[in-house]
């Protein structure tokens, strides 16, 4: 704690408004520059329908299915038109808070609060007429017990993440667990310890990940690797181990006030959280995520993770890597000023990023009660931190444009500090153990697109913050977003 | 002969029309000249004047829009076929034959650029009235003459001519253009009116009829096309129009001493392009050219831009612009009671100090709007036309800045409560005229107050609340803090600044702000029309995995999919659904319902006590029997939608598959339920049909309060058991199912 005041001063210097300000957090203030590279286009929704989008998926014919909090599924045409006027065809109704859609063999798999349901149109009239339960292996007894579904993995498995009861308790069967649902329809308990998931899917390397919200045992939102038989950090759901014999005995109880790094040594089922998103500065309620597999249509961030945030109506980026067998990675600001609280994001066939959601129920910066918006790359490459990876003595920082050798070769222009959060029972948590690191050496790649920096120390278990404000590209431009955060769980041996 | 034609032309042809210059604008003569120089694209050919001009229309796909015949005639004599056009006559002193030849070649070349044949003309028929309505209400009349019988409007001058449009366009070509005008004219002088595709078609149909005979394009020889391509560059058409990547012609060097009576400015331009300039226009251009070149001040730059784009035809700023009296009747609102400010676009006086720059950008560049009641639309002019305007307005428009300090921790609750009271019907009742946080006002639906924080700058907000008509003259918004004194003296001690600060903070909360009193809305009702409706959600009558089914004619029931039981029946209205707050989708019968047991209904063995569903309580909140009722053999499997939407519910009791279909009997007090059982072997199962105070009417008929149950028929043998269960009774049917399929039908009759 002794470092805390120092960090506070540092923070106030960079973000003078952060301590005061509105409840949803201040803006990055980068919207004006972001617009030049990523244009925001509204996808109008007819007056007589409500689309609080919770899930999207592609259909084989190029349409996009959207599932809503009202429990309806619409098939949308025309999302990529220059002046979009999408057509919405109502496919299915009567589901309950949809947070997962996947399509396989002419059937739509819908994850909603009550079940994972196969929805099909057996008479081909364009409207669903058959609803088959694939899994209802979990209890459902408070409204907050949302269920989030992934797409299929290559073997045809789907993963379902189940939120806690009222987001604090586990009062119904398997609340706070992740299930694997096999192609044969078997529901297998897969992991425990989830709190309030916002989405589940695969990272850019195909591993199962979910996004967790800040709260008890989670001082900030984080992307976590969902390990088979794993424990995701919140022990309230231990009471269901006796119903999951495949998972063995419940793990050791974590010690409150410790760190995920320390506890992961005591509790083999626990991995330290892979990518931690510093609270408020990088989202407050991160939701659905998707990988950019557009082949460059969306700009220079191919194969990276894009995530929406509910409270701040922003979109973030993340990248992951496995070091010494443990997942970790970085998060980066991407685009602000979306119009509603984002619940999910999805790439269109033309490589634009659709986002949707609602501002109902929780504080949200965006003013629209619901909206569908399309983010499209203007074709102009922004100067951004593309990706940060770790090496044994420091980090490799990739950029989207060649660096100005003068500003980029000065070690003092790379400001790195690190901090962590407590792993504890309380809701959220303060920044602790703030410390400065010194960049001792910089080596710029021949093509000018990356810098290898050497640090005087890397602190294991810390989130490393990079501030690269002084660095310019060859056109003399500053970074659109000059900061990023890397969570160091392991240092390469 | 040629001279003579020129003379006649000079008399017949209208001078170019720049609408903003003919409206009440703030420009000096030389500034008007500057606008003309830019709008007529003088800098496309001349060096050393002003900034590079905006691009002329993109002609790469001109053949898909414009009738070939018109294109040729227009090239030959623009102003004769589109009076008021900014396109000059470039044929100068050439002979009529030569003009004809070059125009043929140029149009042949332009038409050859787009090989795609014109799309078949298919516009909505018999909808001219709808198109006409659109034309007159969305804002077209701000720049174009109204197309109705209004004599005042007919007399208006300075409006862009549309008489040629029916000869110029293919009908779908016009619809395409209206839908995305900036694609062809990136300069935004015909702005994007945010018309939907179908609106564009309606408007096109109104302007040129639903069908236009598309004249078959003459086929031209490659030689003619090649000659046209050559002429296009030689005559410097590419100075303004983009057709390919060929470089623009070199600029005409600026002369040390200008001859202001020669070239384009001459009465007889000769070889120079002829713009048909009026004397007034020539004078203005000469004034601009003789003035010592200097950059306009930011305030002047704003005036120039607002005039150039004709923003001033709808918006007043300071003492210029505003809707012309003859056009006033074309501006409408769906909320007439909110007065002129709900139908006339807002004044732009001090707009740079009023709106947050980010919001101004959203309005200008992204079509953002907060006045859904205003029927006239804010056009989108595109980035080229608006570049830098947001910054200029921010620079010029200033109010003494103020800052609203966020409430101190200890006074936060007090501030929140104060704002909540001020806004509601027990306070200033702001919500009587304003929507709030996405919810409609119970009376007048003025703009959503919650947008204030995102849209407005604090100083403007403060001054506006204290004196609304000073910043928005004539607005019907009352002053609740006249001369800075609060009308409401109870709240926050009647401190005006504190009250306004509390409101500002409240608006910063967005969705997390409480609804003021008076705003509360009823849950929406779902109604059943001609199809049976199936709705899933939580309900006190059917548990968390509840399903409500409503039939046309007013009979409804609910099924608890968690426990496998038909749990409620009600005649009358279907359900209301909660769509507010975090939890949502919960349903409640919209008419009084008869509640039945919510416990598992089928078992293969009859226990001494029927297994009842677990109840969670506040004291014991964890489900005490979390695998109920699957440990009793029940599994829900789904449902299929059948004829007229009626669902068949599917579930299992151990190895017995059950299909459960109910329909409303023609008499609206009865539900016919048919249960179909499929089993691979003969088996007995137990069906708990009713519980409560049961009265046996006959062997096959039983009553509970308000409901009679009649067992109709079965091809399985069944026997009744009525037994006591605690303080209640329960009716259990023992069904001896054969191998294969068997059925049981029963009626639920609602008693008067």
Q: CATH class of the largest domain in chain A, anyone?
A: Mainly Beta
Approximately what portion of the residues of chain B adopt beta-strand conformation? 15-25%
In the CATH hierarchy, what is the superfamily of the largest domain in chain A?
A: TolB, C-terminal domain
Strand numbers in spatial order across the main sheet of chain B: 12-13-14-15-22-19-18-17
* Largest sheet descriptor of chain A: 8 strands, antiparallel
Q: Portion of residues in helices of chain B? A: 25-40%
Low-confidence stretches of chain B: 1-11
CATH architecture of the largest domain in chain B: Distorted Sandwich
Chain pair forming the biggest interface: A-B, 63 and 57 residues
- Tell me what the CATH architecture of the largest domain in chain A is: 6 Propeller
Total discrete domains of chain A = 2
Major sheet size, sense and barrel closure of chain B: 8 strands, antiparallel
Name the structural class of chain B. Answer: alpha+beta
Number of DSSP helical runs of chain B: 23
Give unreliable regions of chain A as ranges. 1-22
Structure, explained:
The complex is a heterodimer of chains A (493) and B (752). With 493 residues, chain A is mainly beta. Chain A folds into two domains: 4-10 and 383-487, Sandwich (Immunoglobulin-like), CATH 2.60.40.1220; 40-377, Neuraminidase (6 Propeller). Chain A contains four helices and 33 strands. Chain A has helices spanning 4-14, 31-37, 260-266, 405-408, and strands at residues 38-42, 53-58, 64-68, 73-77, 87-92, 98-104, 107-112, 116-120, 130-135, 147-152, 158-162, 178-181, 187-192, 197-202, 208-212, 221-225, 230-231, 275-277, 286-291, 305-309, 314-323, 326-335, 342-347, 353-358, 370-377, 385-390, 394-399, 415-420, 432-437, 439-444, 450-455, 463-467, 483-487. Chain A has an eight-stranded antiparallel β-sheet. Chain A has a five-stranded mixed β-sheet with strand order 10-11-12-13-17, with no helix packed on it. A four-stranded antiparallel β-sheet of chain A has the order 1-25-24-23. In chain A, strand 2 and strand 3 (64-68) form a beta hairpin. Chain A is globular, with a radius of gyration of 22 Å. The model of chain A is unreliable at 1-22 (pLDDT under 50). Chain B is α+β, with helices and mostly antiparallel strands and 752 residues long. Chain B has five domains: 2-117 and 217-290, no CATH class; 128-208, Cytochrome Bc1 Complex, Chain D, domain 2 (Orthogonal Bundle), CATH 1.10.760; 298-396, no CATH class; 409-512, Cytochrome Bc1 Complex, Chain D, domain 2; 527-613 and 626-750, Beta-galactosidase, Chain A, domain 5, CATH 2.70.98. Helices cover 27% and strands 18% of the residues of chain B. Chain B has an eight-stranded antiparallel β-sheet with strand order 12-13-14-15-22-19-18-17, with no helix packed on it. Chain B has a five-stranded antiparallel β-sheet with strand order 4-5-6-7-10, with no helix packed on it. In chain B, strand 12 and strand 13 (647-653) form a beta hairpin. The longest helix of chain B has 18 residues, at 96-113. Classes of the chains: A mainly beta (493), B alpha+beta (752). At the A-B interface, helix 2 and strand 9 of A face helix 16, strand 4, strand 5 and strand 12 of B. Strand 9 of chain A pairs antiparallel with strand 12 (634-641) of chain B.
């Amino acid at each position: 704690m002794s470092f805390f005041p120092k960090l506070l001063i540092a923070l106030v210097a960079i973000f003078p408004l952060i301590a005061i300000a509105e409840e949803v957090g201040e803006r990055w203030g980068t919207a004006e520059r972001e617009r030049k590279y990523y244009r925001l286009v509204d996808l109008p929704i007819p007056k007589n329908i409500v689309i609080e989008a919770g899930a999207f998926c592609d259909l084989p014919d190029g349409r996009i299915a959207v599932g809503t909090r009202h429990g309806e599924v619409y098939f949308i045409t025309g999302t990529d038109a220059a002046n979009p006027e999408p057509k919405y065809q109502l496919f299915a109704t009567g589901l309950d808070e949809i947070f997962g859609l996947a399509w396989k063999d002419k059937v739509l798999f819908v994850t909603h609060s009550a079940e994972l349901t196969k929805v099909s149109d057996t008479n081909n009239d364009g409207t669903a007429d058959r609803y088959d339960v694939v899994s209802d292996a979990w209890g459902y007894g408070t409204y907050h017990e949302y269920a989030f579904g992934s797409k299929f993995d290559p073997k045809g498995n789907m993963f379902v993440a189940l939120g806690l009861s009222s987001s604090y308790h586990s009062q119904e069967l398997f609340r706070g667990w992740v299930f694997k649902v096999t192609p044969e329809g078997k529901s297998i308990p897969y992991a425990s310890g989830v709190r309030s998931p916002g989405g589940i899917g695969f990272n850019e390397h195909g591993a199962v990940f979910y996004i967790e919200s800040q709260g008890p045992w989670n001082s900030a939102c984080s992307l976590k690797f969902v390990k088979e038989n794993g424990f995701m950090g919140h022990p309230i759901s231990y009471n269901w181990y006796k119903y999951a014999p495949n998972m063995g005995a419940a793990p050791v109880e974590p010690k409150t006030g410790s760190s995920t790094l320390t506890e992961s040594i005591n509790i083999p089922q626990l991995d330290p959280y892979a990518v931690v998103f510093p609270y408020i500065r990088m989202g407050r309620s991160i939701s659905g995520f998707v990988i950019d597999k557009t082949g460059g249509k969306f700009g220079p961030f191919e194969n990276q993770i894009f995530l929406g945030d509910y409270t701040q109506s922003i979109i973030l980026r993340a990248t992951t890597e496995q070091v010494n067998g443990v997942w970790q990675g970085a998060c980066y600001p991407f685009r602000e000023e979306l119009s509603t609280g984002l619940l999910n994001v999805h790439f269109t066939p033309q490589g634009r990023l659709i986002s949707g959601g609602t501002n109902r129920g929780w504080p949200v910066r965006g003013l629209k009660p619901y909206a569908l918006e399309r983010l499209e790359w203007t074709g102009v490459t922004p100067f951004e931190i593309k990706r940060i990876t770790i090496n044994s003595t420091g980090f490799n920082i990739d950029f989207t444009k060649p660096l100005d050798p003068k500003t980029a070769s000065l070690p003092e222009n790379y400001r790195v500090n690190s901090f962590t959060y407590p792993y504890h029972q309380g809701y959220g948590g303060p920044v602790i153990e703030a410390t400065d690191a010194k960049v001792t050496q910089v080596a710029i790649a021949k093509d000018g697109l990356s810098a290898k920096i050497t640090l005087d120390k890397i602190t294991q278990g810390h989130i490393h913050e990079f501030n690269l404000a002084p660095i310019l590209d060859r056109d003399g431009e500053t970074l659109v977003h000059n900061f990023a955060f890397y969570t160091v769980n392991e240092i390469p041996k | 002969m040629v001279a003579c034609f020129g003379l006649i032309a000079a008399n017949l042809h209208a001078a170019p029309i720049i609408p903003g210059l003919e409206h009440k604008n703030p420009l000096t003569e030389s500034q008007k000249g500057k606008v003309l120089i830019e709008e007529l694209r003088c800098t496309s050919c001349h060096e050393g004047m002003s900034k590079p001009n905006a691009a002329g229309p993109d002609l790469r796909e001109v053949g898909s829009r414009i009738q070939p015949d018109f294109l040729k005639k227009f090239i030959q004599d623009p102003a004769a076929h589109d009076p008021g056009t900014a396109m000059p006559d470039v044929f100068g002193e050439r002979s009529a034959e030569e003009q004809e030849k070059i125009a043929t070649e140029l149009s042949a070349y332009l038409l050859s650029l787009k090989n795609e044949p014109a799309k078949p003309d298919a516009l909505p028929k018999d909808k001219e009235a709808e198109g006409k309505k659109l034309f007159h209400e969305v804002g077209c009349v701000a720049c174009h003459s109204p197309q109705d019988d209004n004599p005042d409007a007919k007399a208006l001058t300075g409006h862009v001519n549309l008489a040629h449009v029916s000869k110029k366009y293919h009908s779908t070509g016009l619809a395409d253009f209206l839908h995305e005008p900036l694609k062809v004219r990136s300069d935004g002088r015909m702005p994007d009116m945010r018309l939907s595709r179908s609106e564009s078609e309606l408007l096109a149909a109104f302007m040129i009829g639903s069908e236009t005979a598309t004249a078959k394009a003459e086929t031209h020889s490659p030689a003619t096309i090649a000659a046209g391509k050559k002429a296009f560059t030689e005559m410097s058409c590419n100075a303004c129009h983009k057709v390919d990547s060929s470089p623009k012609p070199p600029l005409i060097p600026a002369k040390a001493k200008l001859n202001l009576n020669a070239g384009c400015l001459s009465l007889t331009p000769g070889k120079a392009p002829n713009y048909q300039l009026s004397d007034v226009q020539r004078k203005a251009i000469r004034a601009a050219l003789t003035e010592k070149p200097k950059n306009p001040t930011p305030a002047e730059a704003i005036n120039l831009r607002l005039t150039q784009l004709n923003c001033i035809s709808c918006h007043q700023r300071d003492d210029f612009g505003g809707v012309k009296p003859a056009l006033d009747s074309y501006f409408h609102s769906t909320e007439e009671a909110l007065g002129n400010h709900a139908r006339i676009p807002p004044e732009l006086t001090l707009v740079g100090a009023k709106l947050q720059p980010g919001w101004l950008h959203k309005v200008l560049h992204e079509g953002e709007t907060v006045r859904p009641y205003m029927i006239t639309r804010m056009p989108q002019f595109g980035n080229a036309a608006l570049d830098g305007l947001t910054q200029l307005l921010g620079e010029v428009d200033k109010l003494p800045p103020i800052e609203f300090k966020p409430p101190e921790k200890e006074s936060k609750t007090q501030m929140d409560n104060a704002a909540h009271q001020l806004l509601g019907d027990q306070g200033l009742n702001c919500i009587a005229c304003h929507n709030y946080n996405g919810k409609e006002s119970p009376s007048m639906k003025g703009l959503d107050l919650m947008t204030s924080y995102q849209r407005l700058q604090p100083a403007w907000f403060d001054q506006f609340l204290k004196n609304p008509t000073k910043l928005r003259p004539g607005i019907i918004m009352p002053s609740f803090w006249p001369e800075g004194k609060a009308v409401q003296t109870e709240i926050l001690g009647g401190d005006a600044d504190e009250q306004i600060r509390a409101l500002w903070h409240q608006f910063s909360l967005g969705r997390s702000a409480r609804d003021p009193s008076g705003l509360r809305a009823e849950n929406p009702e779902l109604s059943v029309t001609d199809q049976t409706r199936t709705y899933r959600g939580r309900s006190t009558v059917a548990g968390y995995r509840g399903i409500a089914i409503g039939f046309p004619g007013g009979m409804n029931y609910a099924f608890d999919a968690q426990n496998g039981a038909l749990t409620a029946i009600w005649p009358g209205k279907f359900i209301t659904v909660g769509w507010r707050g975090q939890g949502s989708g919960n349903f409640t019968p919209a008419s009084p319902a008869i509640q039945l047991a919510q416990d598992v209904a089928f078992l293969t063995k009859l226990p001494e006590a029927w297994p009842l569903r677990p109840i969670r309580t506040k004291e014991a909140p964890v489900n005490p029997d979390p695998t109920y009722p699957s440990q009793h053999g029940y599994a829900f499997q789904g449902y299929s939608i059948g004829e007229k939407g009626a669902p068949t519910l599917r579930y299992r009791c151990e190895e017995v598959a059950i299909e459960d279909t109910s329909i409303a009997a023609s008499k609206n007090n009865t539900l016919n339920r048919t249960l179909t059982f499929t089993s691979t072997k003969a088996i007995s199962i137990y069906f708990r049909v009713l519980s409560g105070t049961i009265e046996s009417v006959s062997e096959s008929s039983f009553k509970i309060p308000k409901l009679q149950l009649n067992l109709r028929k079965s091809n399985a043998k069944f026997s009744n058991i009525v037994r006591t269960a605690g303080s209640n009774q329960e009716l259990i049917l023992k069904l001896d199912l054969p191998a294969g399929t068997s059925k049981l039908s029963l009626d639920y009759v609602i008693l008067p």
